[in-house]
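A.,

Following up on our hallway conversation. Structure tokens first:
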């Protein structure tokens, strides 16, 4: 397949590209700067700019573009960047592919389990209603833009990623130095559910969505073995052979991170990967202990 990838320099995109190339796929990367390699295509999603010639004749588009939600405190300006970086990128791609004479067969578009909001211990499937809050609203708007590809006749998959575990980036990379010093512990009460997935399985789910014609609509990309934050931190400390007994009170998290604390650190989302399991997807890391043991070996 000839595949265009937006967001190729991020945590998931950087891991995805070598896997797809090893499988024989041709990869084109969308970049905002002047292209420096033959596989790069320049675009400006904020201005909805991307030439038709750049993606004419491609078989698939993978859209992973979006500003990191945990990069810093959610000021009004950062919230707007988080929203527009996702919505503008998706609108640009969908608007362009809809006008192509030969359309791609599939758009695989990122989303997140933030779609469901803070739901306590409720078990959430792809059929569950959206939640409330900033992240939930962003995810809904993000997915609404992606659905335009479906209306144009392109199979569209909306991957709702959980917390992606990798020592190379994301939340875990920020946690590891603290836990290695023995200073880690649960966040708030620790009773909030964490829906996580290993980086290998996140990449695998994208590959599954690309080649499986039956895969369409929302897909929860989380491991089947969800855990509470208290269990996650305990197991992380055990994997690193360090104590994890220093809790961080919710009031401290709110003081430091503001709104992000309630929606990204203390919110509870107990999500299950029903579509992936029914589609025969084989998780490399279905349980947390397996994922953390592999991370320790890296």
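Then the amino acids I'd put at each of the 298 positions:
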């Amino acid at each position: 397949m000839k595949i265009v990838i937006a967001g190729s320099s991020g945590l998931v995109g950087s891991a995805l590209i070598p896997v797809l190339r090893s499988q024989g796929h041709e990869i084109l990367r969308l970049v905002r700067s002047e292209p420096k390699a033959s596989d790069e295509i320049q675009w400006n999603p904020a201005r909805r700019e991307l030439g038709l010639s750049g993606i004419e004749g491609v078989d698939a588009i993978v859209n992973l573009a979006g500003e990191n939600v945990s990069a810093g405190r959610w000021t009004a300006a950062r919230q707007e960047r988080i929203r527009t970086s996702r919505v503008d990128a998706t609108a640009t791609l969908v608007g362009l592919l809809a006008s192509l004479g030969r359309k791609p067969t599939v758009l695989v578009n990122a989303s997140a389990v933030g779609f469901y909001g803070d739901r306590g211990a409720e078990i959430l499937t792809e059929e569950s209603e959206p939640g409330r809050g900033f992240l939930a609203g962003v995810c809904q708007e993000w997915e609404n833009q992606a659905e335009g590809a479906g209306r144009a006749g392109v199979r569209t998959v909306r991957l709702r990623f959980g917390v992606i575990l990798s020592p190379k980036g994301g939340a875990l990379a920020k946690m590891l130095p603290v836990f290695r010093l023995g200073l880690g512990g649960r966040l708030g009460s620790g009773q909030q559910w964490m829906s996580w997935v290993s980086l290998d399985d996140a990449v695998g789910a994208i590959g599954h969505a690309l080649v499986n014609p039956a895969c369409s609509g929302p897909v929860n990309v989380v491991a089947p073995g969800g855990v509470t934050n208290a269990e996650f931190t305990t197991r992380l400390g055990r994997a690193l052979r360090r104590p994890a007994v220093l809790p961080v009170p919710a009031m401290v998290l709110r003081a430091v991170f503001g709104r992000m604390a309630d929606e990204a650190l203390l919110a509870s989302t107990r999500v299950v990967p029903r579509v992936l399991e029914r589609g025969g997807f084989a998780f490399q890391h279905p349980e947390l202990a397996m994922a953390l043991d592999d991370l320790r070996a890296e």
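The longest strand covers residues 106-112. Curious whether your intuition agrees with the design.

B.
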